[in-house]
Please model this.
Amino acid sequence: MSDHPRATEGDADRVVVVGAGVAGLGAALYLSRAGRRVTLVERDATPMPTDPDSAFAWDRRGAPQVRHSHALLGRIHNLIRDDHPDVLRDLLQEGATEIRFTDLMPTTLDDLTPAPGDEDLVMLACRRTTFEWVLRRTVAREGRVEILTGSGVEGLVVGPRLGDRPPAVTGVVLENGSVVTAGVVVVANGRRSGLPRWLERAGLPSGSEETEDTGIVYHSRFYRLDPGKEFPTSDRPIAGDLTYLKYGVFWGDNRTFSLTLAVPQDDTALRALRDPDVFDSAASLLPAPAEWIDERATPITGVHSMSGLINRRRRFVDGEMPVALGLHVIGDASVCTNPLYGRGCSLGFWQARLLSDALAANPDPLEAALALERTTHEHLDPWYDASVQSDRAAKAALERRNGSEEADDPALFMRSVIREGLQPASRTHAVVWRSFIRLLNLLSTPDALMAPEVAGPILTAWQERAARPPDPALGPDRSEFVASLGLVSGG
Model:
Protein backbone atom coordinates (compact mmCIF):
# COMPACT_ATOMS: atom_id res chain seq x y z
CA MET A 1 0.00 0.00 0.00
CA SER A 2 2.69 2.51 1.00
CA ASP A 3 6.47 2.64 1.23
CA HIS A 4 6.28 5.19 4.04
CA PRO A 5 6.72 4.18 7.68
CA ARG A 6 3.63 3.15 9.61
CA ALA A 7 2.63 4.56 12.96
CA THR A 8 4.67 3.23 15.84
CA GLU A 9 3.24 2.25 19.20
CA GLY A 10 4.20 5.68 20.53
CA ASP A 11 2.14 7.35 17.79
CA ALA A 12 -1.02 5.35 18.50
CA ASP A 13 -2.60 8.11 20.59
CA ARG A 14 -1.56 10.86 18.15
CA VAL A 15 -4.12 12.39 15.84
CA VAL A 16 -3.20 14.22 12.64
CA VAL A 17 -5.78 16.83 11.68
CA VAL A 18 -5.54 18.08 8.09
CA GLY A 19 -6.83 21.64 7.77
CA ALA A 20 -7.07 24.47 10.32
CA GLY A 21 -10.50 25.81 9.47
CA VAL A 22 -13.43 25.71 11.88
CA ALA A 23 -13.90 21.93 11.67
CA GLY A 24 -10.19 21.15 11.95
CA LEU A 25 -9.64 23.54 14.84
CA GLY A 26 -12.72 22.15 16.53
CA ALA A 27 -11.37 18.62 16.19
CA ALA A 28 -7.97 19.66 17.55
CA LEU A 29 -9.63 21.37 20.51
CA TYR A 30 -11.97 18.51 21.41
CA LEU A 31 -9.41 15.74 20.92
CA SER A 32 -6.54 17.44 22.73
CA ARG A 33 -8.78 18.17 25.69
CA ALA A 34 -9.81 14.51 25.64
CA GLY A 35 -6.17 13.61 26.27
CA ARG A 36 -4.88 12.93 22.77
CA ARG A 37 -1.76 14.39 21.18
CA VAL A 38 -2.69 16.33 18.06
CA THR A 39 -0.66 17.48 15.07
CA LEU A 40 -2.57 20.11 13.11
CA VAL A 41 -1.40 20.50 9.50
CA GLU A 42 -2.31 23.72 7.65
CA ARG A 43 -1.22 24.59 4.11
CA ASP A 44 -1.26 28.36 4.58
CA ALA A 45 1.95 29.75 6.09
CA THR A 46 0.96 33.07 7.62
CA PRO A 47 1.99 34.76 10.87
CA MET A 48 -0.48 34.52 13.72
CA PRO A 49 -2.55 37.72 13.94
CA THR A 50 -2.48 39.84 17.06
CA ASP A 51 -5.98 41.33 17.08
CA PRO A 52 -9.33 41.03 15.26
CA ASP A 53 -8.46 43.57 12.57
CA SER A 54 -5.16 41.90 11.70
CA ALA A 55 -7.02 38.58 11.72
CA PHE A 56 -9.41 40.07 9.16
CA ALA A 57 -6.39 40.70 6.92
CA TRP A 58 -5.12 37.14 7.46
CA ASP A 59 -3.73 35.67 4.24
CA ARG A 60 -5.86 32.52 4.02
CA ARG A 61 -5.45 31.63 0.35
CA GLY A 62 -6.42 28.05 1.08
CA ALA A 63 -9.75 29.22 2.52
CA PRO A 64 -11.13 32.01 0.30
CA GLN A 65 -14.53 31.65 1.92
CA VAL A 66 -13.29 33.47 5.05
CA ARG A 67 -13.77 36.71 3.10
CA HIS A 68 -17.50 36.03 2.92
CA SER A 69 -20.41 36.27 5.34
CA HIS A 70 -20.74 33.61 8.02
CA ALA A 71 -23.26 32.93 10.75
CA LEU A 72 -22.27 31.39 14.07
CA LEU A 73 -25.63 29.94 14.93
CA GLY A 74 -27.06 28.78 18.23
CA ARG A 75 -25.70 25.26 17.71
CA ILE A 76 -22.06 26.33 17.64
CA HIS A 77 -22.58 28.99 20.32
CA ASN A 78 -24.07 26.45 22.70
CA LEU A 79 -21.39 23.83 22.02
CA ILE A 80 -18.72 26.38 22.89
CA ARG A 81 -20.67 27.68 25.87
CA ASP A 82 -21.13 24.19 27.32
CA ASP A 83 -17.88 22.47 26.27
CA HIS A 84 -15.32 25.29 26.05
CA PRO A 85 -16.47 28.28 28.13
CA ASP A 86 -12.96 29.75 28.04
CA VAL A 87 -13.25 30.09 24.26
CA LEU A 88 -16.57 31.90 24.56
CA ARG A 89 -15.07 34.22 27.17
CA ASP A 90 -12.12 35.02 24.88
CA LEU A 91 -14.40 35.65 21.89
CA LEU A 92 -16.47 38.13 23.89
CA GLN A 93 -13.32 39.84 25.16
CA GLU A 94 -12.14 40.25 21.55
CA GLY A 95 -15.32 42.01 20.48
CA ALA A 96 -17.80 39.27 19.60
CA THR A 97 -21.28 39.69 21.03
CA GLU A 98 -24.14 37.36 21.86
CA ILE A 99 -27.37 37.94 19.96
CA ARG A 100 -30.22 36.77 22.18
CA PHE A 101 -33.27 36.11 20.09
CA THR A 102 -35.59 36.63 23.04
CA ASP A 103 -34.50 40.28 22.94
CA LEU A 104 -35.77 40.37 19.35
CA MET A 105 -39.16 38.70 19.90
CA PRO A 106 -41.91 40.36 17.86
CA THR A 107 -44.19 42.28 20.20
CA THR A 108 -47.11 40.99 18.12
CA LEU A 109 -46.72 37.43 19.49
CA ASP A 110 -49.67 36.00 21.41
CA ASP A 111 -47.47 35.11 24.40
CA LEU A 112 -44.31 36.97 25.44
CA THR A 113 -43.74 34.85 28.56
CA PRO A 114 -40.24 33.30 28.83
CA ALA A 115 -40.16 29.57 28.13
CA PRO A 116 -37.76 26.72 28.98
CA GLY A 117 -35.00 26.55 26.39
CA ASP A 118 -34.98 30.28 25.67
CA GLU A 119 -31.44 30.40 27.07
CA ASP A 120 -30.31 28.39 24.04
CA LEU A 121 -31.68 30.86 21.50
CA VAL A 122 -28.40 32.74 21.20
CA MET A 123 -26.02 33.19 18.29
CA LEU A 124 -22.59 34.81 18.07
CA ALA A 125 -22.01 38.05 16.18
CA CYS A 126 -18.48 37.46 14.97
CA ARG A 127 -16.52 37.45 11.73
CA ARG A 128 -15.18 34.06 10.77
CA THR A 129 -11.63 35.39 10.79
CA THR A 130 -11.99 36.53 14.40
CA PHE A 131 -13.55 33.22 15.37
CA GLU A 132 -10.78 31.16 13.74
CA TRP A 133 -8.07 33.39 15.21
CA VAL A 134 -9.35 32.97 18.77
CA LEU A 135 -9.87 29.25 18.22
CA ARG A 136 -6.37 28.74 16.80
CA ARG A 137 -4.85 30.80 19.60
CA THR A 138 -6.62 28.56 22.10
CA VAL A 139 -5.51 25.37 20.35
CA ALA A 140 -1.91 26.60 20.17
CA ARG A 141 -1.89 27.01 23.94
CA GLU A 142 -2.93 23.40 24.48
CA GLY A 143 0.15 21.48 25.56
CA ARG A 144 -0.81 18.44 23.50
CA VAL A 145 -1.10 20.27 20.16
CA GLU A 146 1.60 20.84 17.54
CA ILE A 147 0.74 23.10 14.60
CA LEU A 148 2.56 22.65 11.28
CA THR A 149 1.97 25.49 8.82
CA GLY A 150 3.21 26.08 5.29
CA SER A 151 3.01 22.52 4.03
CA GLY A 152 -0.06 20.85 2.64
CA VAL A 153 -0.82 17.16 2.55
CA GLU A 154 -0.38 15.25 -0.69
CA GLY A 155 -1.10 11.67 0.34
CA LEU A 156 -1.81 9.05 2.97
CA VAL A 157 0.33 6.45 4.68
CA VAL A 158 -1.58 3.16 4.50
CA GLY A 159 -0.79 -0.17 6.10
CA PRO A 160 -1.54 -3.66 4.75
CA ARG A 161 -4.98 -5.24 4.83
CA LEU A 162 -5.35 -7.66 7.73
CA GLY A 163 -7.98 -10.34 7.21
CA ASP A 164 -11.39 -9.03 6.22
CA ARG A 165 -10.87 -5.60 7.76
CA PRO A 166 -9.90 -2.56 5.69
CA PRO A 167 -6.28 -1.38 5.85
CA ALA A 168 -5.41 1.33 8.33
CA VAL A 169 -4.34 4.87 7.51
CA THR A 170 -1.33 5.49 9.74
CA GLY A 171 -0.26 8.97 8.73
CA VAL A 172 -0.01 11.60 6.03
CA VAL A 173 2.64 12.55 3.49
CA LEU A 174 3.38 16.27 3.32
CA GLU A 175 4.21 18.22 0.17
CA ASN A 176 7.84 18.44 1.26
CA GLY A 177 8.03 14.65 1.34
CA SER A 178 8.10 14.27 5.11
CA VAL A 179 5.72 11.93 6.89
CA VAL A 180 3.64 12.51 10.00
CA THR A 181 2.53 9.22 11.54
CA ALA A 182 -0.49 8.82 13.78
CA GLY A 183 -3.09 6.40 15.01
CA VAL A 184 -5.94 8.57 13.69
CA VAL A 185 -6.09 10.87 10.65
CA VAL A 186 -8.83 13.51 10.48
CA VAL A 187 -9.38 15.18 7.10
CA ALA A 188 -10.96 18.61 7.55
CA ASN A 189 -9.53 20.56 4.63
CA GLY A 190 -12.73 21.83 3.09
CA ARG A 191 -14.85 21.36 0.03
CA ARG A 192 -11.82 21.24 -2.27
CA SER A 193 -10.25 18.39 -0.31
CA GLY A 194 -8.08 16.04 -2.37
CA LEU A 195 -8.97 13.04 -0.20
CA PRO A 196 -10.64 10.99 -2.98
CA ARG A 197 -7.47 11.38 -5.06
CA TRP A 198 -5.27 10.39 -2.12
CA LEU A 199 -7.35 7.28 -1.57
CA GLU A 200 -7.18 6.27 -5.24
CA ARG A 201 -3.42 6.78 -5.23
CA ALA A 202 -3.20 4.45 -2.23
CA GLY A 203 -5.24 1.80 -4.02
CA LEU A 204 -8.31 2.31 -1.84
CA PRO A 205 -11.94 3.07 -2.73
CA SER A 206 -12.42 6.81 -3.08
CA GLY A 207 -15.80 6.86 -1.38
CA SER A 208 -19.09 8.01 -2.86
CA GLU A 209 -20.64 11.42 -3.26
CA GLU A 210 -23.78 13.19 -4.33
CA THR A 211 -23.57 16.78 -5.52
CA GLU A 212 -25.99 19.48 -6.61
CA ASP A 213 -24.94 22.87 -7.88
CA THR A 214 -26.72 25.68 -6.07
CA GLY A 215 -26.86 27.70 -9.27
CA ILE A 216 -25.89 30.94 -7.55
CA VAL A 217 -22.98 33.36 -7.33
CA TYR A 218 -22.22 34.89 -3.95
CA HIS A 219 -21.14 38.56 -3.58
CA SER A 220 -20.15 39.83 -0.11
CA ARG A 221 -18.93 43.11 1.32
CA PHE A 222 -18.00 44.06 4.88
CA TYR A 223 -18.80 47.34 6.63
CA ARG A 224 -18.14 49.02 9.97
CA LEU A 225 -20.59 51.28 11.76
CA ASP A 226 -19.63 54.93 11.70
CA PRO A 227 -18.77 56.61 15.03
CA GLY A 228 -21.92 57.39 16.97
CA LYS A 229 -24.06 55.06 14.89
CA GLU A 230 -25.70 51.84 16.10
CA PHE A 231 -27.22 48.80 14.44
CA PRO A 232 -30.80 49.22 13.18
CA THR A 233 -33.55 48.22 15.59
CA SER A 234 -36.48 47.90 13.16
CA ASP A 235 -38.29 44.61 12.65
CA ARG A 236 -37.39 44.34 8.97
CA PRO A 237 -36.09 40.85 8.10
CA ILE A 238 -32.32 40.86 7.61
CA ALA A 239 -32.61 38.14 4.97
CA GLY A 240 -34.86 38.07 1.96
CA ASP A 241 -35.58 36.33 -1.32
CA LEU A 242 -36.75 38.27 -4.36
CA THR A 243 -36.40 35.18 -6.61
CA TYR A 244 -33.89 36.88 -8.91
CA LEU A 245 -31.78 37.91 -5.90
CA LYS A 246 -31.33 36.79 -2.32
CA TYR A 247 -29.78 38.94 0.38
CA GLY A 248 -28.58 38.48 3.92
CA VAL A 249 -27.09 40.80 6.53
CA PHE A 250 -24.68 39.13 8.97
CA TRP A 251 -23.59 40.61 12.31
CA GLY A 252 -19.86 40.74 12.95
CA ASP A 253 -17.60 41.61 15.87
CA ASN A 254 -16.33 45.07 16.82
CA ARG A 255 -19.16 47.00 15.13
CA THR A 256 -18.74 45.24 11.80
CA PHE A 257 -21.27 43.47 9.62
CA SER A 258 -21.46 42.08 6.12
CA LEU A 259 -23.99 42.01 3.33
CA THR A 260 -24.26 39.16 0.86
CA LEU A 261 -26.15 39.34 -2.42
CA ALA A 262 -26.66 36.01 -4.18
CA VAL A 263 -27.83 35.89 -7.79
CA PRO A 264 -28.29 33.20 -10.45
CA GLN A 265 -24.96 32.32 -12.00
CA ASP A 266 -26.34 32.75 -15.52
CA ASP A 267 -27.78 36.24 -14.92
CA THR A 268 -25.27 38.21 -16.97
CA ALA A 269 -26.61 41.65 -16.03
CA LEU A 270 -26.21 41.06 -12.31
CA ARG A 271 -22.56 40.12 -12.68
CA ALA A 272 -22.06 43.86 -12.32
CA LEU A 273 -22.60 43.42 -8.57
CA ARG A 274 -18.89 42.65 -8.39
CA ASP A 275 -18.34 46.39 -8.78
CA PRO A 276 -18.34 48.05 -5.33
CA ASP A 277 -20.32 51.08 -6.49
CA VAL A 278 -22.96 48.91 -8.15
CA PHE A 279 -23.09 46.69 -5.06
CA ASP A 280 -23.76 49.61 -2.72
CA SER A 281 -26.30 51.10 -5.11
CA ALA A 282 -28.06 47.74 -5.21
CA ALA A 283 -28.11 47.59 -1.41
CA SER A 284 -29.76 51.01 -1.32
CA LEU A 285 -32.62 49.63 -3.43
CA LEU A 286 -33.39 46.95 -0.82
CA PRO A 287 -35.14 48.44 2.22
CA ALA A 288 -33.62 46.14 4.87
CA PRO A 289 -29.95 46.31 3.75
CA ALA A 290 -30.34 50.03 3.08
CA GLU A 291 -31.15 50.57 6.77
CA TRP A 292 -27.81 49.06 7.69
CA ILE A 293 -25.66 50.85 5.14
CA ASP A 294 -27.04 54.22 4.09
CA GLU A 295 -25.59 57.03 6.26
CA ARG A 296 -24.73 54.50 8.94
CA ALA A 297 -21.67 52.48 7.89
CA THR A 298 -18.51 52.61 5.80
CA PRO A 299 -17.19 49.75 3.65
CA ILE A 300 -14.01 48.11 4.94
CA THR A 301 -13.55 45.73 1.98
CA GLY A 302 -14.24 45.53 -1.68
CA VAL A 303 -16.74 43.02 -3.03
CA HIS A 304 -15.67 39.39 -2.74
CA SER A 305 -17.33 37.02 -5.19
CA MET A 306 -17.45 33.25 -5.17
CA SER A 307 -18.99 30.79 -7.61
CA GLY A 308 -19.02 27.01 -7.83
CA LEU A 309 -21.18 26.79 -4.72
CA ILE A 310 -22.52 23.30 -4.13
CA ASN A 311 -24.42 21.03 -1.83
CA ARG A 312 -22.37 17.84 -1.53
CA ARG A 313 -22.38 14.80 0.72
CA ARG A 314 -19.32 12.55 0.62
CA ARG A 315 -19.36 9.16 2.30
CA PHE A 316 -16.36 7.03 3.13
CA VAL A 317 -18.29 4.15 4.65
CA ASP A 318 -19.87 1.58 2.32
CA GLY A 319 -22.58 -0.26 4.20
CA GLU A 320 -20.84 -1.53 7.32
CA MET A 321 -17.28 -1.10 6.06
CA PRO A 322 -15.21 2.10 5.99
CA VAL A 323 -12.77 2.58 3.11
CA ALA A 324 -9.94 2.58 5.67
CA LEU A 325 -9.49 2.34 9.41
CA GLY A 326 -8.27 5.32 11.40
CA LEU A 327 -9.53 7.79 8.78
CA HIS A 328 -12.30 10.27 9.57
CA VAL A 329 -13.64 13.11 7.43
CA ILE A 330 -15.44 16.17 8.83
CA GLY A 331 -16.55 19.64 7.80
CA ASP A 332 -17.10 20.62 4.18
CA ALA A 333 -14.93 17.69 3.09
CA SER A 334 -17.79 15.53 4.35
CA VAL A 335 -21.00 17.60 4.33
CA CYS A 336 -21.06 20.79 2.27
CA THR A 337 -24.16 23.00 2.08
CA ASN A 338 -25.11 26.22 0.34
CA PRO A 339 -23.28 28.96 2.30
CA LEU A 340 -26.26 31.28 1.88
CA TYR A 341 -27.97 29.44 4.73
CA GLY A 342 -25.07 30.11 7.10
CA ARG A 343 -24.84 26.56 8.46
CA GLY A 344 -21.32 25.52 7.48
CA CYS A 345 -19.36 26.63 10.57
CA SER A 346 -21.94 25.19 12.94
CA LEU A 347 -22.16 21.87 11.11
CA GLY A 348 -18.37 21.53 10.95
CA PHE A 349 -17.82 22.26 14.64
CA TRP A 350 -20.73 19.98 15.56
CA GLN A 351 -19.20 17.16 13.53
CA ALA A 352 -15.90 17.69 15.37
CA ARG A 353 -17.78 17.06 18.61
CA LEU A 354 -19.42 13.95 17.10
CA LEU A 355 -15.97 12.69 16.08
CA SER A 356 -14.61 13.18 19.58
CA ASP A 357 -17.59 11.30 21.01
CA ALA A 358 -17.19 8.44 18.50
CA LEU A 359 -13.50 7.99 19.29
CA ALA A 360 -14.06 8.16 23.04
CA ALA A 361 -16.81 5.53 22.98
CA ASN A 362 -15.25 3.16 20.44
CA PRO A 363 -11.64 2.00 20.91
CA ASP A 364 -12.07 -0.27 17.87
CA PRO A 365 -11.32 1.94 14.80
CA LEU A 366 -13.91 0.08 12.74
CA GLU A 367 -16.64 0.81 15.26
CA ALA A 368 -15.47 4.42 15.61
CA ALA A 369 -15.84 4.96 11.85
CA LEU A 370 -19.31 3.45 11.82
CA ALA A 371 -20.35 5.49 14.85
CA LEU A 372 -19.31 8.77 13.22
CA GLU A 373 -21.14 7.87 10.03
CA ARG A 374 -24.30 7.04 12.01
CA THR A 375 -24.29 10.28 13.99
CA THR A 376 -23.45 12.33 10.90
CA HIS A 377 -26.42 10.74 9.15
CA GLU A 378 -28.65 11.40 12.15
CA HIS A 379 -27.67 14.98 12.91
CA LEU A 380 -26.13 16.55 9.77
CA ASP A 381 -27.77 14.81 6.82
CA PRO A 382 -31.18 16.41 7.52
CA TRP A 383 -29.57 19.82 7.02
CA TYR A 384 -27.88 18.71 3.83
CA ASP A 385 -31.25 17.47 2.56
CA ALA A 386 -32.93 20.71 3.62
CA SER A 387 -30.37 22.76 1.70
CA VAL A 388 -30.91 20.68 -1.43
CA GLN A 389 -34.69 21.01 -1.17
CA SER A 390 -34.52 24.77 -0.57
CA ASP A 391 -32.28 25.26 -3.59
CA ARG A 392 -34.54 23.16 -5.78
CA ALA A 393 -37.50 25.29 -4.70
CA ALA A 394 -35.54 28.46 -5.49
CA LYS A 395 -34.66 27.14 -8.95
CA ALA A 396 -38.30 26.20 -9.55
CA ALA A 397 -39.42 29.71 -8.62
CA LEU A 398 -36.84 31.21 -10.95
CA GLU A 399 -37.96 28.92 -13.77
CA ARG A 400 -41.56 29.95 -13.16
CA ARG A 401 -40.56 33.62 -13.32
CA ASN A 402 -38.76 32.94 -16.58
CA GLY A 403 -41.77 31.13 -18.01
CA SER A 404 -40.40 27.59 -17.94
CA GLU A 405 -42.92 24.76 -18.07
CA GLU A 406 -40.53 22.57 -16.10
CA ALA A 407 -41.01 24.42 -12.83
CA ASP A 408 -41.43 22.03 -9.90
CA ASP A 409 -44.94 22.64 -8.54
CA PRO A 410 -44.43 20.78 -5.20
CA ALA A 411 -41.32 22.86 -4.58
CA LEU A 412 -43.24 26.04 -5.39
CA PHE A 413 -46.02 25.00 -3.03
CA MET A 414 -43.59 24.55 -0.15
CA ARG A 415 -42.01 27.89 -0.96
CA SER A 416 -45.47 29.49 -0.80
CA VAL A 417 -46.23 27.86 2.56
CA ILE A 418 -42.98 29.24 3.98
CA ARG A 419 -43.53 32.75 2.66
CA GLU A 420 -47.28 33.06 3.18
CA GLY A 421 -47.74 30.67 6.10
CA LEU A 422 -44.64 30.27 8.25
CA GLN A 423 -43.48 33.87 8.11
CA PRO A 424 -46.80 35.49 9.12
CA ALA A 425 -47.53 32.78 11.73
CA SER A 426 -44.12 33.34 13.32
CA ARG A 427 -45.08 36.98 13.90
CA THR A 428 -48.23 36.10 15.85
CA HIS A 429 -47.83 32.63 17.42
CA ALA A 430 -45.11 32.22 20.06
CA VAL A 431 -44.98 28.45 19.55
CA VAL A 432 -44.32 28.92 15.83
CA TRP A 433 -41.78 31.67 16.46
CA ARG A 434 -39.76 29.52 18.87
CA SER A 435 -39.89 26.54 16.55
CA PHE A 436 -38.71 28.69 13.65
CA ILE A 437 -35.86 30.25 15.64
CA ARG A 438 -34.75 26.84 16.91
CA LEU A 439 -34.75 25.58 13.33
CA LEU A 440 -32.72 28.54 12.08
CA ASN A 441 -30.13 27.83 14.77
CA LEU A 442 -29.89 24.07 14.09
CA LEU A 443 -31.37 23.32 17.52
CA SER A 444 -34.14 21.14 16.12
CA THR A 445 -34.54 19.11 12.95
CA PRO A 446 -36.04 20.53 9.75
CA ASP A 447 -39.19 18.43 10.24
CA ALA A 448 -39.91 20.13 13.59
CA LEU A 449 -42.25 22.49 11.76
CA MET A 450 -44.48 19.50 11.02
CA ALA A 451 -45.46 19.10 14.69
CA PRO A 452 -49.25 19.65 14.93
CA GLU A 453 -49.00 22.61 17.31
CA VAL A 454 -46.67 24.31 14.81
CA ALA A 455 -48.04 23.17 11.46
CA GLY A 456 -51.62 24.08 12.39
CA PRO A 457 -51.08 27.84 12.73
CA ILE A 458 -48.78 27.83 9.68
CA LEU A 459 -51.39 26.23 7.44
CA THR A 460 -54.12 28.47 8.83
CA ALA A 461 -52.05 31.55 8.03
CA TRP A 462 -51.37 30.21 4.54
CA GLN A 463 -55.07 29.55 3.91
CA GLU A 464 -55.88 33.11 5.00
CA ARG A 465 -53.21 34.68 2.81
CA ALA A 466 -55.68 36.32 0.43
CA ALA A 467 -57.46 38.09 3.29
CA ARG A 468 -54.30 39.72 4.65
CA PRO A 469 -52.79 42.95 3.40
CA PRO A 470 -49.64 42.11 1.46
CA ASP A 471 -46.34 42.34 3.32
CA PRO A 472 -44.11 45.31 2.44
CA ALA A 473 -42.04 44.58 -0.64
CA LEU A 474 -38.54 43.30 0.05
CA GLY A 475 -37.32 45.23 -2.97
CA PRO A 476 -38.11 46.08 -6.59
CA ASP A 477 -38.82 43.50 -9.25
CA ARG A 478 -35.90 42.53 -11.45
CA SER A 479 -36.67 44.85 -14.36
CA GLU A 480 -36.91 47.88 -12.05
CA PHE A 481 -33.81 46.76 -10.14
CA VAL A 482 -31.73 46.43 -13.30
CA ALA A 483 -33.02 49.71 -14.73
CA SER A 484 -32.31 51.59 -11.49
CA LEU A 485 -28.72 50.38 -11.59
CA GLY A 486 -28.34 51.39 -15.23
CA LEU A 487 -27.58 47.83 -16.31
CA VAL A 488 -28.38 46.15 -19.60
CA SER A 489 -31.03 43.53 -18.89
CA GLY A 490 -30.08 39.93 -19.51
CA GLY A 491 -30.29 36.54 -17.87
Remarks:
- The domain at 14-70+127-212+310-386 is CATH 3.50.50.60 (FAD/NAD(P)-binding domain).
